[in-house]
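pasting for the record
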Amino acid sequence: MKHIPRKRFGQNFLTDQGVLFDIIRAIDPQPDDTMVEIGPGLAAMTRLLLESLKQLHVVELDRDLVLRLQKNFDPHKLIIHAGDALQFDFASIPVTSDAKLRVVGNLPYNISSPLLFHLAEMATRVQDQHFMLQKEVVERMVAEPGSKTYGRLSVMLQWRYHMELLFVVPPAAFDPPPQVDSAIVRMIPLAQPLACDAATLAQVVTKAFSQRRKVLRNCVAGMFSENDLIDAGVDPQSRPETVPVEQFVALANRLSTR
């Protein structure tokens, strides 16, 4: 029976075989990888991944799709975690002592940013992540300082990951077609991210980008004095979108030591 995509789950199923093979080549799954796919949907990518993997974990919220997966796959090869990826404990997936988790998926656009932050909490346990996301979101993730798209998402993710936009996927590759272009992003956790408290950095970055058109001194008034900014090596007259990640980290560390 044909599955009707559900808007509340943000379901757009990738059907273009050429794009699917391009994604699999980018991921390059190896037999012994410990891999989890978020939102397997109708299993188009799942089937291709299982051609290389001994076993695959999937996280799926839609109960109808969970039943379909249970019916169509060997339970020893496909380990199904029924539930919300935003609530799922990815650290619960066992990995061997010398291995790390690989995470892939066509992420629902309506939860992509919260899910990326949820996954960032366990970045030290992850080898890499390959995601299909709205192209606009990926552009914000990889944006460099000085870009109009550089903002809170850029800083918080670039502090933890090296990221690369691999290629763009047009709406016609999906059923139903979304209203926007998509893109594939590769995310590799940094071996040694700059030392910083994540919550404090988020606090600083959120305040800094709350008023993008103002100079940084005005954006963070009440949190930092002009001398605080200067002592941290930050130009008080700069605009938030021109401040590199390492300077935001310096400000967060200054706030933490008060």
